[in-house]
Amino acid sequence: MSIEHENFIKSPKQLIVIVVLSFVVPIxxxxxxxxLMTSDKKVRPDEDPAALLSRIKPVGELxxxxxxxxxxxxxxxxxxxxxxxTPGLANAPKFGDKAAWAKVIAQGQAQTVQHAITGIRAxxxxxxxxxxxxxxVAGAVVHMANAAGANWKAPELKMPSAAPAVxxxxxxxxxxxxxxxxxxxxxxxxxxxxxxxxxxxxxxxAAAGGADKGKAVYDATCMVCHATGVAGAPKFGDKAAWAxxxxTGAAALHASALKGKNAMPPKGGNVALPDADVVAAVDYxxxxxx
Length: 290
What we know:
Elements: H1 12-37, H2 49-55, H3 73-85, H4 98-106, H5 109-118, H6 134-147, H7 201-226, H8 239-247, H9 250-259, H10 275-288
């Protein structure tokens, strides 16, 4: 006599349930086990917020800068060279003036580009923007020379050699969390409200941001004339030269920078600058002269 063993799975539905449970049960067990093993890392209601932030701080930080955007000659001219070469400040040959550019063109492309890179007479190296590559400077020179009758060829733009990667500095080891206080903590409703931030915090941060923007605009545009005192421009940091201008008031200085005055063109020659950036640059120079 044979004995048949009865299979307890009698329908497809039961099969599906068993398969699902075979996956769910082990996963649930793993989750419960991991929570048990890490239960000492959870936030404690009596832990000081500063200690908590220190404990969960990452072990390292990495800052990634955006890639440099290469500028063609016409864009370098529009953002930088136009400041002096459009109005002819400090005897700079005016853009499109064939007579003024004739002597420059006669000395050849190589020497003219070298002068632009290293600086010559009132013109600072690279027109005052040290971030420009040799090819970007050469492109601007070719753009101006060709507008005056030359037939030079701009070099191909090349990205500068990448600097060696710097490993992220490890953060200081987080201090051990303080032991729980034996004193009973008051109920949450009895805890004092967090002290409000000082009223001066926001203005201070805004002022710092404005100074950074002002320096960036100065380095890219204003430095061309104000670093060397071209065409009577008050030199950066020269208190005696800036004193009478500061005495006229901030509104007058801002208006002069935005609309132009004497040899200085509107917005320092870079008409694409927002008014707020021009004002920030003026305030940056004024602060350095006080």
